[in-house]
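Example record used in the benchmark description.
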Amino acid sequence: MLERACIRNGIEYTKVKPAFTSKIGLYKYTHQYGLDVHHGAALVIARRAYGMREKVPRLLREKLLPTFKKTTEWKRWSMVHQRIEKEAKIITKGSVTPEFWRSHRKEILGLTSNL
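Model output (structure tokens):
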């Protein structure tokens, strides 16, 4: 429907692969820019439309993927999400929600001080 409306009105549109947009938006942009997950996902989609790539941030790579091997970006994000899901099951016996990530982000990344 959106595609036809763009064509009908002479508006340029770009199709992008929607894979991992919500996860990348959650893990990369919610904290960085104070966005909610949906706006973060929209940012990822917009960046893809401009041909930009979403690399896993260094902090996530170092803390969650210590034996990082040469893999595709998609696989890296999948591995990050699997690791965070594993932590969520240990901490709350649940799955990763935006609220879980916001409240346990520092703990999972080892950024809390125990002083």
